[in-house]
Amino acid sequence: xGNLTDIRTGxxxxxxxxxxxxxxxxxxxxxxxKPVMRTKLRNLIDGSALxxxxxxxxxxxxxxxxxxxxxxxxxxxxKAYFMDSENFEQFELDTExxxxxxxxxxxxxxxxxxxxxxxxxxxxxxxxxxLEVKNTVPGVKGDTAQGGTKPATLETGITxxxxxxxKEGDKLVINTETGQxxxxxxx
Length: 187
Description:
Elements: E1 12-15, E2 18-28, E3 36-43, E4 49-55, E5 65-76, E6 79-84, E7 90-94, H1 95-102, E8 110-116, E9 119-124, E10 128-136, E11 149-154, E12 159-163, E13 171-175, E14 180-184
Antiparallel strand pairs: 1-2, 2-3, 3-4, 5-6, 5-8, 6-7, 8-9, 10-11, 10-13, 11-12, 13-14
């Protein structure tokens, strides 16, 4: 069981049996009232948001989560397959739960997988990944780095806006947190 003041941004609490990440918290103590901790929570399994106020004396518990370095292997139909980098055990996740992450992963990419009660529940990709341009309209003479942007489809199927000078076959650094072009990859 936890103490009210132990609830802070970044901790994971159990609410109705599910793990929730505390993304914001504020401690309130008013005269002649019990102190409360107001929070904004994000469900680590389905991503839903929840506003919850914890009261002093209310029982709650912290969720035990574990992050492990893993390697993305491949996906097939509605499953994505991974391998634990320490014990080499393979496991799968439903692609619908991690489709926003899958668009940045190619076979062999190292990721961090979050486990809750021994089961994988989420994937954190590297902040930056290198992906090859598979399809984009050709540049026109005079296109410069300060020009504009155009859409480009990358090897994983994701489409991002890139500078006009980018051509098919270029390898690009993509920021997975913003989903945007960062730079050309140096060979």
